[in-house]
Amino acid sequence: YEINARWQALNFVVGRREVIDPVSLRPIAGIPLATRAELETFLRYAAGVELAVAQEYLTAAYSLKAPDGLPDVLADDIRAAHSELMRVAIGEMRHLRAVNDVLRGLADPGTFRPALQVASKIPGVDPGSTRPVQPRPATLSVIDEFISIEAPSVSVDSVYARILATFERDGPHDLEQSIRTIMAEGEDHYETFLAIREWLGRHPNESDFLRAVRPPP
Fold first, then answer.
1. Cα 210 to chain center, whole Å?
2. Computed over its alpha carbons, how large is the radius of gyration of the chain?
3. Contact 164, 180 (CB under 8 A)
4. Measured distance CA(50)–CA(116) in Å, rounded
5. Cβ proximity of 141 and 135 under 8 Å
6. Are the CB atoms for 155 and 123 separated by under 8 Å?
7. Rounded Cα–Cα distance for residues 33 and 39 (Å)
8. Residue 162 contacts residue 30 (beta carbons within 8 Å)
9. Kind and range of the H or E element at 206?
10. pLDDT at 143
C-alpha cells in the first residue's frame, strides 16, 4: 500500500542498485566482434575468467582469521569481509552459468559444449593487458587489485563490453540483456570491494586479520 501511495517519492533501482541521487547513465563503449566464432571465443574466455576470479576471491576469503576471540571491532570487520568475499565469489559462479546459458542460446541444437576451462590469465589493470591467475591472501594490496578487476569499463568489464556491443548490433536481445545483467552485477562487486578495503584498512597490521601463510607445525 505504501509503495502504491508514495511511488513518486521513493527511491528507484538502476542496474540492481537503489538510487538516491540524480542518475547519470554511463555509456558502455565496445567494438563489436566480427564473426560468430570470435564472439564464442570471447564468451568462453569470459567464462574462464569468472572461474579464475572466483578461485582468487575464495582464497582471499579463507585467508582471513576466524573472528572468535578477537577484539569486537576486528572480529566484526573480518566477519563482514569474509561474508562479502563469499557472496562475490558465488556471484562469479552465477556469471559462469549465465555465460554458458548465452553460449547455449547461440549453439545449434545438439552442439552445445559448456565452457568450464579455468582461464590461465585474466585481464590486467591496464587496458589490453593480462596477468596470471594468482590465488593470494586478502592483503590490502590484493583487495586493491580486486577493486581494479571489477571497476566499471576496466579489466573484465572491457571483455564484456565487446560482447555486449556485438549483441546490440546483431541480437538476439534476450542474450544482450543477460550480458547487461552480468556487467551490472560487476559494478556491485566493485562497490563491495571498496567496502571490504575500508573495513580491513582500519587495521594497518595485516597479521591482525590474516592467517599465517605458513602456520607453524
1. 22
2. 19
3. yes
4. 10
5. no
6. yes
7. 6
8. yes
9. none
10. 97
Counted residue by residue, the chain has a size of 217
Q: What is the DSSP letter of 4?
A: H
C-alpha cell at 172: 538476439
DSSP state of 207: G
30: amino acid identity, one letter? G
In three-state secondary structure terms, 14 is strand
Angle at 16 (CA atoms; ends 12, 20), nearest 5 degrees: 35
Cell numbers for 137, please give them.
591472501
Angle at the Cα of 126 (from 123 to 127), degrees rounded to 5?
75
Is residue 197 within 8 Å of 190, Cβ to Cβ? Answer: no
Cα–Cα distance for residue pair 95/46, rounded to 1 Å: 9
Q: What is the pTM of this model?
A: 0.85
pLDDT at 124: 83
> Residue 101 has which C-alpha cell?
546459458
CB count in 10 Å sphere of residue 78: 23
Nearest to 156 by CA among 131, 137, 174: 131
From first to last of the 217 residues of the chain, give the pLDDT tens digit: 777 777 667 666 655 556 556 655 555 668 899 999 999 999 999 999 999 999 999 999 999 999 999 999 999 999 999 999 999 999 999 999 999 999 999 999 999 999 999 999 998 877 778 999 999 999 999 999 999 888 876 667 788 999 999 999 998 989 999 999 998 888 889 999 999 999 999 998 999 999 987 766 6
Report phi then psi at 203, rounded to 5. Answer: -120, 90
Sign of the torsion angle spanned by Cα atoms 97, 131, 62, 66 = negative
